[in-house]
Design a protein that fits this description.
The complex is a heterodimer.
Chain A (H helix, E strand, L loop, with lengths): L1 E2 L8 E5 L20 E2 L6 E21 L1 E9 L8 E7 L8 E23 L5 E11 L3
Antiparallel strand pairs in A: 1-8, 2-4, 3-8, 4-7, 4-8, 5-6, 5-7
Chain B lengths: L3 E9 L6 H9 L15 E9 L6 E9 L6 H5 L7 E7 L3 H5 L1 H9 L9 E6 L11 H10 L3 E4 L9 H23 L3
Parallel strand pairs in B: 1-3, 1-4, 4-5, 5-6
Antiparallel strand pairs in B: 2-3
Classes of the chains: A mainly beta, B alpha/beta.
């Protein structure tokens, strides 16, 4: 198991609905908690992570701030389309520290892409500091 | 590359105070004043980008021009979830419209009580000086006691129409910058 969502593992953020070039979506998968991607107003906000290959997913860990409700979807097609909803999470608000959410997928779940949708927030702006996905490549 | 912020701006107040006139004059850069009255049914959405001075950033205002007639309220409030900023409008020649401001403000705030959002109080139709019944002081006092910024405008004379919108866009941008400072301290 390793972080298949990290840019070092060849993953990419292929879509993000907010763009402040000082806080780019690449910060979500750069392996550092110090950098983040920020939403720039209104909800929902979305980003899609595309893996190097089809992966078995064990756990998804999200570090965020001001996120109230987030949904995660997966796609197994080559193109980032045809997503199906995996999980919907209500996240508790935190004061002065990051929110941490873990989604357990059991290891039998495959995905080529994961789509994260921030449905609502505790404030006008929310961040994603890091997404970590424990998994490994599907060997066919 | 400029950063584009997006803000939902809800425009509220009694019917015929000039909400649609204000938003349309602003949206058209002063080229369009609706001379004939049209009753707004439900909500009309207009989008306009405002550049923020001394930055590369811009705020896209999604302006929700809401019907003021009570009969539409049930529909209108469905569009009010997650407001970013609010514009409360009254007509300086109508005491009723001024008295309603508290009601409208309460309605907007009940949407998201835990979230703060910038707001302005707009006194419209100042061109009708002879018929004016609400003094600038009354307007300013109400604005101050409710945490709103006060503006006097005339949509008809295209006087000061941009000012309240620019103020809201700038406040939203300021809020964004403040939050970023907070976010940087989290890791």
């Amino acid at each position: 198991m390793f972080d298949v969502a990290s840019s070092k593992a060849g993953a990419q953020v292929v879509l993000a609905t907010s763009a402040d070039e000082e806080y780019p979506p690449e910060n979500i998968i750069d392996g550092s908690q110090d950098t983040f991607w920020v939403t720039t107003g209104l909800y929902p906000q979305e980003f899609v992570i595309t893996f190097q290959a089809l992966m078995n997913i064990n756990t998804v860990r999200i570090q965020s701030f001001n996120v109230r409700k987030i949904t995660v979807g997966r796609s197994v097609s080559n193109e980032p389309t045809e997503f199906e909803l995996l999980r919907e999470k209500d996240v508790e608000s935190t004061d002065g520290q990051l929110q941490e959410e873990e989604i357990h997928c059991g290891g039998n779940l495959t995905a080529q892409h994961l789509k994260f949708t921030i449905q609502s927030g505790y404030d006008h702006f929310a961040t994603i500091h890091q997404v970590h996905v424990d998994g490994n490549a599907v060997h066919s | 590359m400029p950063t584009i912020l997006r803000a939902k701006c809800i425009v509220v107040g009694d019917s015929t105070v000039g909400k649609s006139a204000l938003t349309q004059v602003f949206h058209s850069d002063g080229t369009h004043y609706p001379k004939n009255y049209t009753l707004t049914a439900g909500v009309e959405l207009l989008v306009k980008a405002v550049n923020i001075p001394d930055s590369n950033d811009c705020v896209e205002l999604y302006i929700y021009d809401s019907a003021g007639k009570e009969i539409f309220y049930e529909i209108v409030q469905k569009h009010w979830d997650h407001p970013s900023v609010v514009m409360l409008v009254y007509d300086v020649t109508s005491e009723t419209s001024f008295d309603s401001c508290a009601k409208w403000l309460e309605r907007v705030r009940s949407q998201k009580p835990e979230m703060q959002f910038p707001g302005v109080l707009v006194a419209n139709k100042i061109d009708l000086d002879q018929r004016r019944v609400i003094s600038p002081k009354a307007g300013k006092d109400f604005a101050q006691s409710n945490g709103l910024e006060y503006f006097e405008v005339s949509a008809k004379e295209m006087q000061q129409v941009e000012a309240p919108f620019y103020f809201l866009a700038n406040e939203f941008h300021k809020m964004y910058k403040e939050r970023l400072e907070q976010f940087k301290t989290l890791a």
